[in-house]
Write a structure and sequence with these properties.
- The chain is about 25% helix and about 30% strand.
- The chain is built from five helices and eleven strands.
Amino acid sequence: MLEPPEARAVVSLGARDLDACLPWGGLPCDGLHEVRGDGAFGWAYALAGRALAERRGEMLLLGPPSPLGTYPPGLIRFGIAPERVLIANAKAENDRLWTLEESLRSGCFAVVVAVVDSRDLTASRRLHLAAEAGQSMALLLCRTGGASAALTRWEVFPVAGNGNAHWRVSLQRCRGGQSADFIAGWDHDALRLYPTTLLGD
């Protein structure tokens, strides 16, 4: 039997059916969440867009140096105004983890989206505690799984849609809750997620 989840401040995903997949009734905005899969960036931007719609503050986008940079019109489609985004790059993994932890703990950001190649249980605990201390949502895009202190872990893959972004989503880890699988889309006009299919157990 699952224990009742602790009370936390949450951000609505934009649809009652999706919020009901989470034991808090929405996505906690003061903890660590991990996202993997080919659709990880889009899903993370959707979650960040929801967080910025309901919370004050800026977003930090942290990753390794990239010659492609960030595409502002793409952010806008997820409700993320470019002027609310700070971009930081660090080539070394340890530098990114340190920057991520300090940024979360500072309380300066409503949401932080960070790309890492790996992390261990100790590192994830530090990041989660830093997010709690700073009341920040941490969205960690990582290529590896393993033990983690994250509140949620998502695996996401893009699927064909009707012009809007669509994903097949697997909620693989949910502290105090259960796993869930569904197909969801992003409404670029309403700036919210909506379920197209709730998959069976």
